[in-house]
Design brief:
312 residues
Length: 312
């Protein structure tokens, strides 16, 4: 091999060999293989060489005991995997059955509470009617009492605390699809959303009817009065915390012709017509000339603090 290679490898090209004596004072060089020499001379990794040798010898035939042991370990692994999957499926089924049972229990509790609330509301209405009858019986004997009753009736209409009947207008809005579970009313209406009618739409209709001259309004058989709100809660619309569903019916008592003329030019009807053209919402406006509209009395709340507007 060329001399530069031996110079790099640590060997002396003049004949130095392991164990030789130094000549002419020259330092002795030991045969220490360098990385460069191993790279130039050994082109194959020892591991590859060993693998090639085993391949030339042929595959070693495992002993019968080792083969049986391998099969046994494979069977144990298969049993363990099957057991894990069986336990997971059983837990999933038990969890689903428990969730279903919890849902059934919650639904039963909701129905029970709704029935109790309905009974209490009927009892409250009965007592309120009895109090009203006694008050009218005692105040209707003289002229001063009659004036007091007239004032109470007028205030009762304004406060929506008494049932009223008369002609008016009925606005029916039908949602074309089942509503999604929206968390609040601030979410914008987007294309493809199944929740079309939102609380702000009904609020605009109610405000437009008030501005058109309505004397009393009810949404879904819930009287609109002081402290009554229309808001979104999930996929339902709550009127005074009572859920209503499509079709949404808004009843307004007043002069049918005047209400119809003013409501036709109101922002509420413009919004409904836009929803009708864009999303297929059903909109129907019916006038009732006869006194066949009856709006229920609204819930009366206790007033703890009050102040006259404009009082010094």
């Amino acid at each position: 091999m060329a001399e530069p290679f031996f110079a790099l490898s640590g060997y002396d090209s003049q004949g130095d060999s392991p164990g030789s004596e130094p000549e002419n004072g020259r330092p002795q060089k030991f045969p220490v293989p360098s990385l460069l020499r191993s790279l130039l001379s050994e082109h194959l990794d020892p591991g590859y060489a060993a693998a090639a040798a085993r391949r030339e010898q042929g595959p070693a035939t495992p002993a019968p005991g080792a083969r049986l042991a391998g099969w046994a370990w494979q069977a144990v692994a298969a049993v363990l995997v099957t057991t894990v999957f069986a336990v997971a499926v059983d837990q999933a089924r038990s969890g689903a059955s428990g969730e279903h049972a919890a849902q059934q229990m919650l639904a039963a509790n909701v129905r029970s509470e709704e029935a109790a609330t309905s009974r209490l509301a009927d009892k409250r209405d009965t007592y309120a009617n009895r109090v009203d009858d006694l008050r009218r019986h005692r105040l209707a004997d003289d002229s001063q009492g009659q004036r007091v009753l007239a004032g109470l009736d007028e205030l009762g209409v304004v406060a929506a605390s008494t049932r009223v009947s008369g002609p008016g207008l009925i606005v029916t809005v039908t949602d074309p699809g089942v509503g999604r579970n929206l968390s609040d009313a601030s979410k914008q209406r987007v294309s493809g959303s199944q929740q079309i009618i939102l609380d702000r739409d009904l609020q605009l209709v109610v405000n437009s009817l008030w501005a058109s001259g309505a004397e009393a309004i009810a949404v879904g058989d819930v009287r609109i009065g002081p402290n009554v709100t229309i808001r979104q809660a999930g996929g339902a619309i709550l009127v005074d915390n009572k859920p209503i569903s499509s079709p949404y019916t808004v009843q307004a008592i007043g002069s049918p012709d005047a209400l119809r003329d003013a409501f036709d030019r109101s922002p509420g009807l413009y919004r409904l017509r836009l929803l009708e053209m864009s999303y297929g919402v059903g909109v129907r406006v019916d006038g009732r000339r006869s006194a066949d509209l009856t709006l229920p009395a609204g819930s009366v709340r206790d007033i703890r603090f009050a102040a006259q507007v404009g009082a010094s």
